[in-house]
Amino acid sequence: MERINPKVHIMDAGLAYYKSALIYEDELARVRGVMSDNGYIGKKTPVSNDTEGNLFMSFSNPFRTRYIKCRLSGPQDGAFAAEFKEGDKNTVLKLVALSIAYVLAVILAAKYFPWWLLVLCIIGLTILLAACLAPSKLAQHNVRKMIRTLNGRK
Fold first, then answer.
1. Whether pTM exceeds 0.85
2. What confidence tens digit (pLDDT) does each residue in 110-124 have?
3. 49 and 21 inside one domain
4. What residues contact 67, with CB distance under 8 A and at least 6 apart?
5. Which residues pair with 65 in a beta bridge?
6. Partner of 81 for a Cys bridge, out of 34, 73, 126, 145, CB 3.0 to 4.6 A?
7. Beta-bridge mates of residue 86
8. Is the peptide bond prior to 6 cis by the omega test (within 30 degrees of 0)?
9. Reduced to 3 states, what is the DSSP secondary structure of residue 95?
C-alpha cells in the first residue's frame, strides 16, 4: 500500500444506501471492483485496505495527491451503507512549476508589453493560477459515479 500523506485532509464525499442479497464479503469485493473501475480514467486502479479496515484508493500523480476511502456497513435488513470520503492536495512539484511559469510569464510580459497590457496580463495569469490551484473535481466526480453505480443507476 502507498504511504498516506497525513497533510491531505479527508472529507465526507457521500453515502450510498442500497439493498443487496450478497453477504458482507461478497459485497465488499463488489464495492472494491466499483472503486477500482472509477479511479484512473481508462484503467483499473488498485484498491487496498487502510489501517482501519476501510477500502482505500489512491489515484495520485506527480502534480496532485488524491485519495478515496470507503467504509462499508451492513447488512441490516438486506441493506448496505457505503460511506465515501475523499482527499485532494496539490503537490510541491505543482506549486513550484506553476510559480516558475507565473514569474517567467510576468517577466516576459513586462519586457515586451506596454504597461496597460502588462496589468491585464498579470490579472489574467493570476486568474489562471488560481484555477490551476483550485481543488480537483475528479475525485468528487468519481465518488458520485461510484454512488450511482452502487445505487443501481448509471
1. no
2. 888 888 888 888 898
3. yes
4. 4, 8, 10, 56, 57, 58, 60, 86, 87, 88, 139
5. 89
6. 73
7. 11, 68
8. no
9. helix
